[in-house]
Amino acid sequence: MLGEVITAIVTPFDSDGAVSYDEFRELLLHLADNGSDGFLVFGTTGESPTLSDAEKLELLRVAVDTVGGGSTVLAGSGTNSTAHSVHLTERAHELGADGFVAVTPYYNKPPARGLVEHFKAIAAATDRPVMIYNIPGRVVVNIEPETMAKLAEIPNVNSVKQANDDLEQARRITELGLDLYAGDDNLIYPFLQLGGVGGVCVHTHVVGPQTKEMIRRYRDGDAKAEPRILRPSPPWPERP
Length: 240
Prior knowledge:
This protein is of the alpha/beta class. The chain has helices at 21-32, 53-67, 82-94, 112-124, 136-139, 145-151, 167-175, 188-193, 204-219; strands at residues 5-8, 38-41, 72-75, 99-103, 130-134, 157-162, 179-182, 198-201. Helix 1 packs across helix 2 and helix 3 packs parallel to helix 4.
């Protein structure tokens, strides 16, 4: 398991539009202390469409150096180019990523066979876990259960970030033996009821402790209890 609360971390920029690696480091430490047990670096929330490869890999290096060993660090190495996805996966592997998140190729609208070959190529570039990211609302194509079954046969594909609210399709993911993660924050609880692990979240930048508590209490059998209302902490330490 890659974690229960994986935050798809934002990428801070300075006033000139350059990546602020110092603030990124501060944010990682803050979130690690406030409910996050894993991070997705340079996912779409982290501005992956507008970052250069050099910026992406430097963010990963900072994340591994800052929280690696205590938190899971995942690289958002999937793109709509198979060759580019393989390249990013290989480089991120070298830098010490614990695993990889590979999104359905956007814009291309690949058929099922193309999807399988795309993800196979990415998974072959590493022996570490690969999480499939299914988000039909953004990429148009949904990974149907029959295709997901083929992806489950790839040895190091172990989980799915599912941004699809079809609960029957989510249930079938768990039946394949894959770890199910909510790809939309509002799906965490219904996915827990189906045997899901947790979520790859955005709202945990501000409500990480509450989300972690909700998952823990569900695991402890307190499924009907509401999480305690906590004052959301700022997403990074306030400066003097």
